[in-house]
Amino acid sequence: MSKGRFGILIDGTAAMPDDLVHAYDVRWLPMYVILKERSFLAGVQLSTADFYERIKAKDVVPETSQPTIQDCLDAYDASRRDGYRDLLVLTIATELSGTFSVATTSAQQTPSERGRIEVVDSRSLAGGISLIATAAARLRDRGGSFDDAVALARRMAGHISILAAADTLEYLRRSGRVSGGAALFGTLLAVKPILEVADGEVRPVDRVRTRDKAALRLRELIAQRTPDGARIHACALSTNDPERARTLGQWAQERYHCVEYFQAEAGPVIGARAGPGVIGLCWYAEEALG
Q: Which of 19, 176, 262, 289 is deepest in the core (most CB within 10 A)?
């Protein structure tokens, strides 16, 4: 690895499979899941399988916590010890977490002579963050500059489409992070909501009664927004439901020209907010890169 190359960090809400993490040498800002007042470092002290097993108990209400300033400083230092001077940091939307603020404050505490740290609010989450990261990584691998990567990330922020179907409203109700979602709750906890992530907000766009209808409606909404055969970059994601995500991803690959495609588990931090059984597609049209 050349000392002149820049590092890319994503926060613990991102959804990226291990093979891509290693291929692009993407680093993580840690985030925490809290179960019965005990804090776990997501993905390290608490595996995805263990998380979903623990939350089966009705008395377990999962919560999440952003990284500390020291967590961020440690992540920055680790990347620099491995030869990365300048660092691009991609975080979940500010409306959904304080991670951007913590990452920015931490960057400001780092001596400027050690290199630059640019923190970008992705205006997204999960696979949306990951798609920005992979675009920046490919630019880097083609010899692109740090400034070009930062500009690309800022240009892409808020322009990743995400549609998802949730299996239960209970976790979303607890999280309080669904804009305009009050009408979905109350006596309607049996419905399967279709959710959109748009410019930092998670909002309901439809609701159906069964899992099968949710998967079909999800496809209909994606098809309405993207013409057949479009060249897209896409990520199929799930919270502990990889087979249904795989089926959705296969449909997307058959319908569109997927220049980039991967499937990812959204992980315990997203799972704590949305619950198990979420499937979704994150995507953007290739021409959107400009």
A: 262
- The Cα 144–Cα 212 span in angstroms is 44
**How many Cβ atoms are within 10 Å of 161's Cβ, its own excluded?**
22
The alpha-helical segments, DSSP class H, found in 123-275 are 127-141, 146-156, 170-175, 211-225, 242-255, 267-274
- Identify the bridge partners of residue 87 per DSSP, sorted by sequence position: 7, 117
Yes or no: say if 161 and 225 are a contact pair by the CB < 8 Å rule: yes
Q: What share of the chain is helix, strand, coil (3-state, %, to 5)?
A: 40, 25, 35
CATH code for the domain of 222: 3.30.1180.10
Long-range Cβ contacts of 146-149 (<8 Å, 24+ apart): 146/6, 146/86, 146/88, 146/116, 146/118, 149/6, 149/8, 149/88
Tokens of 286: 């290739």
CB 169, CB 184: distance < 8 Å: yes
HSE toward the beta carbon, residue 74, CA cutoff 13 A: 8
Residue 289 has pLDDT above 80, yes or no: no
For residue range 26-56, list pLDDT tens digits in order.
999 999 999 988 999 887 888 888 898 898 8
* Owning domain of residue 77: 7-31+66-156
**Last residue within a domain, chosen from 113, 136, 156:** 156
User: And the tokens for 8?
Assistant: 């890319």
CA dihedral over 54, 97, 285, 86, signed as positive or negative: negative
Q: How are strands ordered across the β-sheet holding 201-208?
A: 201-208, 192-198, 161-165, 279-285, 231-238, 257-265
Looking at this protein, which amino acid is placed at residue 54?
R
